[in-house]
Amino acid sequence: MTPFNPPLADLRFVMENLLDLDALASLPSFEGMDAGLLATVCEEAGKFAAGVLAPLNQPADIEGVHWSPAGVRTAKGFDLAYQRCIEAGWNNVAVPAALGGQGLPCVASSAITEMFMAANKAFSMCPGLTLGAIEALEACASEALKARYLPPMVSGRWSGTMNLTEPQAGSDVGAIRCRATPDGSGGYRLQGQKIFISWGEQDLTENIVHLVLARLPDSPPGAKGISLFLVPKFLVNEDGSLGERNDVRCVSVEHKLGIHASPTCVMAYGDEGGAFGHLVGQPNRGLEAMFVMMNQARLTVGIEALGLSERAYQQALDYARQRQQGGDLAGNRNVPIIRHPDVRRMLLRMRVQTEAMRALALVIAQAQDFAQQHPQPEVRAAHLGFVELMTPVFKGWATETSLEVTSLAVQVHGGMGFVEETGVSQHYRDARIGTIYEGTTAIQANDLIGRKILRDSAGHLDGLLADMRAVAADLAEHPCSLGLRLGTAVQALEQAARQLRERFATEPEQVLAVAVPFLMLFGQVAGGWQWGRMVLAARAGLERAGADRDFLRAKLLAGEFYAEHILTGAPGLAQTVLLQRCPSLDWSETLF
Amino acid sequence: MTPFNPPLADLRFVMENLLDLDALASLPSFEGMDAGLLATVCEEAGKFAAGVLAPLNQPADIEGVHWSPAGVRTAKGFDLAYQRCIEAGWNNVAVPAALGGQGLPCVASSAITEMFMAANKAFSMCPGLTLGAIEALEACASEALKARYLPPMVSGRWSGTMNLTEPQAGSDVGAIRCRATPDGSGGYRLQGQKIFISWGEQDLTENIVHLVLARLPDSPPGAKGISLFLVPKFLVNEDGSLGERNDVRCVSVEHKLGIHASPTCVMAYGDEGGAFGHLVGQPNRGLEAMFVMMNQARLTVGIEALGLSERAYQQALDYARQRQQGGDLAGNRNVPIIRHPDVRRMLLRMRVQTEAMRALALVIAQAQDFAQQHPQPEVRAAHLGFVELMTPVFKGWATETSLEVTSLAVQVHGGMGFVEETGVSQHYRDARIGTIYEGTTAIQANDLIGRKILRDSAGHLDGLLADMRAVAADLAEHPCSLGLRLGTAVQALEQAARQLRERFATEPEQVLAVAVPFLMLFGQVAGGWQWGRMVLAARAGLERAGADRDFLRAKLLAGEFYAEHILTGAPGLAQTVLLQRCPSLDWSETLF
């Protein structure tokens, strides 16, 4: 399989041109965090991703995980890779230094996560999930719990998981039945079954800290009666040493379409009387605590999609350069297939959408940094609003788009793409879960409309649209497509958003029926906005002496391609959203 | 897994309303072939597909095929199913009665193929490939060869395969190296390796008849030096009895993303001195003979995509009706997910695109029947022109669309869709080969532009566009979206086609770079054209006493959905095709 080539030049281009690194470095926590330091961090992370994680990706996919009643054995090489990962501290780059982490900004962790997911998504999910658990505990747990559990989780000696789903409770978390009963000594006994628990059991860490949603006795029904519990695999003594095995077990693992090396576990709590757990935060407020994890997890899944897209693109590009087949229009025989116009089209579709994801990921990450660290509350609020607005858009659009990008990578390989040996179909299989877990695309779209667009009293959307229009106007100074297409697309997005807002009160069902097309429209336009900014930066860069002209000219061309092949679809998506249905048809009729 | 439910009502609706069954029945070969008889044939085929083939689909996917040096053992149950298939004659429905087949029209075989592919694609490829080989032999082989080989192939006792691909010769068939040397007695000895040979070896039939492309000594280089050979697995004596094992062997099978139960073979010819073969047709004219198979095979692959789409839709629909999750806007808790607006949107996207494929498949099949059987040459020519124009459109568009449809089926299942046990991801995996084999989508698009649109001296495209416009005009008598959207979409298609024709001479590379978007535009508009005809038929049907009102009203609604969710994208695709690139950018620059 093609080695993974960390996209350092593209990461650096986005960081230096689309972010405000001076402002980032002026935040109290990030002093000295300049472009050079970020580049060094990315370079080192890239070496680890390419050298340690990427070579394990395909063998681990073939091997899968090994379940037995005693537990789960992960694929060959994962244990050593995990040890090297935590020794280098790659598992906690964005955890505050006060908690024992590296204290790097989200901007750095976004870049690192992209590369780790590109190199080996199944593996990288394990430390990724631990990060989410750390964040939830940091936000909601008592000081005593934090003191006992956070240090080994931050160091990576212990992992963390999130346990939401039950057979009858998937998208509808409120349907959870898992029970927690006070044990009289301040603790709880949990009983119930959880499914689809990623990395719910493994052999990489000394202990596993499960964050589990469950119901207390007499709790209200639905989502308002769910509490969060910390349930360790091994009980933890006051001094932090490990005690008895807790009453929680992985009773089977799923046989899945993709991410074969990530154990997806059925977890049984309390089969022998009750799994011991601590309450985290307030009773019946578990969902709020879980949403701390969830929002970051959604962004991380979007970054996974970016990583897989980049990896698939690289593999397709490599194949297209090496594979010789057919002649070109100039009469040359047996040319590398990259010379064929449609192969170039496919590679460009992959590339421009991947670059749009990367730019958006880093812009959102920077906003997270400002939202968390900026001294002024109104600046924090503005950035938080942007992050909250963009989280469902980025997660939904990037994961949906990664299905196309990884599919195109298969297509570029022709028949070889359908043969598992080539390794490219793994990305297609691995990507397929992205639109499902951490909230399906429809859940993202409902969140976007219901909680973001409709309740946007602070006008975050209007501010964003104004930014987008300004970029389109700046682009229009040159006679290229991107400015025009972006202007039209932003207008289409604005009109669609306005109409959805107006119609929701009277036609909520019809609005939700076009929520996903609206989300995709939003994502494509946001990608075009970032392409506009990249093209403006490339134009400016070309004026400077010593510029890498090939690199910057390629950005101009790629931006035009995005305009002509992606943004051209925006008005049509808006038409779908704005739909005017035939007045004589009654859509409440039974269609199925 | 959901049982397969033969779509008899939808097939009958298309046959009775979009086809001219009276004209079909007036063709000499198809006397008495009225709607009732066609419906009976479909019903019986549907029973076989649902009862015998469909239950084997998932177990066979899990089991795969078993290779050993002695040969390939197919999945459990395939042998019995195959015997039942040929006993009932389902393998040769469209083979002329004079050759021992059932002599049914292509319209019937299209419907039957759809159902067989829906039920079990991996299995149904075997008789499907045999049909292609029969057709090529019938068209090109000597009477002596036909007499010896056709009867057992038509009866199904022997199968047929097509052997084109070699490691260095995929899309570029002209790069074939396999050699054939005259053996002095009128036969040939073949040496070389073929890859990706579907059903190249199996244990279902007594013999396998390989049609193999190879080069004669001193043949011209490239595509004009390729000849077609018949190479049986077992030599065949003059009396038709089987002789010695021929020097052709399956040396391995591929481990693939999908169609696990279809053996994809690496075939070695002549490792022990030379595989005996007969020349089929003229020396160096092998590609022409192979294209007889290829054109039908391309249509069949499109029908495969239709079948998989239908099957995936049924499974998603079934799950959406049974799975309860979340509440609806009316305040009901735990409703079947089919009540959620986005689940309905996904199901409708699947359904309307699947129905568009079916309508187009049957319209093309009817044109094949007229092209082959009509007494008047000019009528035959007109229909042949339509079939030739639509073959790449249908194959490319249906297979690409089936990737989306099968992906949506996974999505409707949520997390359960990612678990292989559910069986729905099999359709997603099985569909993925459709855009690759029998010519990738790019190959179809190049054929569409290079050989169909540019050389359309008879004006087949103009005639088709006029038909489409007429449907849009008829629809416009009612104030619904479909007429408007179709009118706009046809205009977009026409403009795009005109511009591609004009620009090809000066900018061939740029034209070929948008060939696939053009093909997709063409397919979507053609699907809209058929939806227009279905809606007109449904409106007319609703006027009649005793009509199935629910069935017909659903067609009106589905047609509107196609207009608002699919045809809305047509103008944007046309914009991509019509692209006006930035004059200051040089696209010949190295972008990669």
From TrEMBL, chains A, B:
It catalyses: 3-(methylsulfanyl)propanoyl-CoA + oxidized [electron-transfer flavoprotein] + H(+) = 3-(methylsulfanyl)acryloyl-CoA + reduced [electron-transfer flavoprotein]. Pfam families: Acyl-CoA_dh_1 (PF00441), Acyl-CoA_dh_C (PF12806), Acyl-CoA_dh_M (PF02770), Acyl-CoA_dh_N (PF02771). Keywords: FAD, Flavoprotein, Oxidoreductase. It comes from the Bacteria. Its EC number is 1.3.99.41. Residues 162-266 form the Acyl-CoA oxidase/dehydrogenase middle domain. Residues 465-577 form the Acetyl-CoA dehydrogenase-like C-terminal domain. This is 3-methylmercaptopropionyl-CoA dehydrogenase. Its cofactor is FAD. Residues 284-448 form the Acyl-CoA dehydrogenase/oxidase C-terminal domain.
